[in-house]
């Protein structure tokens, strides 16, 4: 008896997945026509494929691959149908592409919104400036019309410039330490007090170093608070916790002191001398400590045992004389946040990424001779001070503007470029700290104040024009400068080894 093969039904038949391709009858779950398969994967009724392989042609009826009776495998399924998923895969691919385009559009929208905010703020400032100039023109228009033509130039030269005729006037002197060795100071706005580092006034009974508080509300000195066993090199107040003072010392420790209770609340042992410190203004629980070897230790206030990260310098390892944090801001010039670490040899900007990771950027400044680094966060400027060397015979303070560009991977490459230079005297033996701050006139400009050992004074400069506004005389070389505000009045304090002098903007 011979079996003959019929062509399999077309793909559009409704019951293609339920019938045997030999007899075109439906297979069953039991009996002699139950569902079976060959090794090639094609499906048949057991009776049909069994008889087919017992004949002369021992091949699969569909693909003609060699087969034998022992290759038959019984399957247990009611029906079997193949689903066409090509359309589903096309839709899935289109969805992923659409999601990617949407993310790109959202990112571009956010960037445009940020640029719009920056441009709007700039337009508002320019609009206010134009209004001020219009008022100034109206005030002096009548005078100009009445004056002879030849005298109009003299009148114009007498008009007020962007810097008003006001200046800092001497107010008061505080004697901090009779023996000297004061080093640094900072201001607490929440407590309205100036804090100055000094050696213990009772060194025989209570050796070491601490701080003395001076009330700026009534201009009176307050108590001494012991803190460290060696000289204090860095002081910074928290912007979140009232009266919480961070201090760094050459005794290898970083401490947190509450000035509300006058007690040290936390001590971190860095294992090496600490030259500087600052708070993270983007993550309230982080603090930074600059070490004698150039490294920066990152501490988390929630971890009271040790530091959580060490930022190792990429270049020469010199003491970190200053740490300043630049917060993130909606600025087209420089929107990134991070800590500016300035050593005696170079400077780096450690960009704070998502979480607690930091990315280093070596800043292009002159190598060697650096004694101080300060920042002004709102304008994204930093001030670098150099001592005299063989190429420059005077003290120099260079105003730098932070900037960036994107690399091929879209990551920022942070840098800075000089915009103004302020020259001082020919002497610089001390690591004097300078100051860069907003003009008390609230006109958007900034002032620079630098110590000058040669003249025993602090020099006040207009940052935009580079002109010297005035000198603030002192009895000894200036070690630190601190601007502050009390009851809507602006002040500048200068610190020498023994005294603090207060000047008021009038």
TrEMBL record:
Gene3D superfamilies hit by this protein: YVTN repeat-like/Quinoprotein amine dehydrogenase (2.130.10.10), Zinc/RING finger domain, C3HC4 (zinc finger) (3.30.40.10)
Entry coiled-coil feature ranges: 93-136
GO cellular component: cytoplasm; PML body
Entry EC no(s): 2.3.2.27
PROSITE patterns, per the entry: WD_REPEATS_2, ZF_RING_2
Cellular compartment(s): Cytoplasm; Nucleus, PML body
Membrane-spanning ranges: none
Keywords of the record: Coiled coil, Cytoplasm, DNA damage, DNA repair, Metal-binding, Nucleus, Repeat, Transferase, Ubl conjugation pathway, WD repeat, Zinc, Zinc-finger
Pathway(s) the chain acts in: Protein modification; protein ubiquitination
Main location per the UniProt record: cytoplasm
The reaction(s) this protein catalyses: S-ubiquitinyl-[E2 ubiquitin-conjugating enzyme]-L-cysteine + [acceptor protein]-L-lysine = [E2 ubiquitin-conjugating enzyme]-L-cysteine + N(6)-ubiquitinyl-[acceptor protein]-L-lysine
GO biological process, one term: protein ubiquitination
Domain RING-type: 20-64
Ranges: WD repeats: 225-267
One Gene Ontology molecular-function label: zinc ion binding
Protein name listed in UniProt: RING-type E3 ubiquitin transferase
Record lineage: Eukaryota, Metazoa, Chordata, Craniata, Vertebrata
